[in-house]
Amino acid sequence: xxxxxxxxxxxxxxxxxxxxxxxxxxxxxxxxxxxxxxxxxxxxxxxxxxxxxxxxxxxxxxxxxxxxxxxxxxxxxxxxxxxxxxxxxxxxxxxxxxxxxxxxxxxxxxxxxxxxxxxxxxxxxxxxxxxxxxxxxxxxxxxxxxxxxxxxxxxxxxxxxxxxxxxxxxxxxxxxxxxxxxxxxxxxxxxxxxxxxxxxxxxxxxxxxxxxxxxxxxxxxxxxxxxxxxxxxxxxxxxxxxxxxxxxxxxxxxxxxxxxxxxxxxxxxxxxxxxxxxxxxxxxxxxxxxxxxxxx
Length: 296
Hints:
By secondary structure, the protein is α+β, with helices and mostly antiparallel strands. The chain has 8 helices and 6 strands. The strands form 2 sheets. The protein has a 4-stranded mixed sheet. Strands 5-6 form a two-stranded antiparallel sheet. Helix 1 (49-57) crosses helix 4 (128-198) and helix 4 (128-198) runs antiparallel to helix 8. The longest helix is centred in the middle third of the chain and has 71 residues, at 128-198. The chain starts with 9 loop residues before the first strand and ends with a helix. The model has no long low-confidence stretch (mean pLDDT 81).
């Protein structure tokens, strides 16, 4: 059964709310040889970064991902908290000290609230156990949206790659059709060339030996073997894009092998119009490679 074929390019966002707390996560992905995550997380939420990255790595294998995390808390959600035990103890000590040093002097209770640390603000961001599920939920939503977009882009890539494969097969078919004629031309050309080089030399060459050497030279210039291997790589390429899944690395390897075979063919070709067909095939392989760079 075909698997999902995905591009590495995509965008996804997720949002979770609970009470006065709102969590927003955005993911942007482009192609990369491996998985690279660049997280933009506020300093006060740095504790969550490792958990976020782990969650992404569970579902994404390749790509350069830029992540942004924002947590908004409504102003009314932050409430003052008084350290009552400390205040009670400090009030008792202050009263005792006043009675010993300045009996009858008034002591203002409100003054004690100004002591550093006596009154603090209960910030929901500091409640990690309560905030983490919201962050993870927003990350999951963003990843799901990202993967959906990558799958849509992957379908377009499949169609485009299929067209390029068809064009490449057409170019290779034209080269293959011309091979028998090229082999004969090469054989005759090599024989004629040897005869020309021997003119004026007192060298006797057996006619059968001359044809045999010409045939050997023609065989060395033959590209049937390279063409066969190139077709084999192309068939594997087509099979992989039809099967889908995470095949980007294998497709990239196959395009490199195709280029190697095409370059060898170009170096052997001595007939201009056929050499041009190989050059066109190389251009199609280059198109495959460019598109393959964006496949997971």
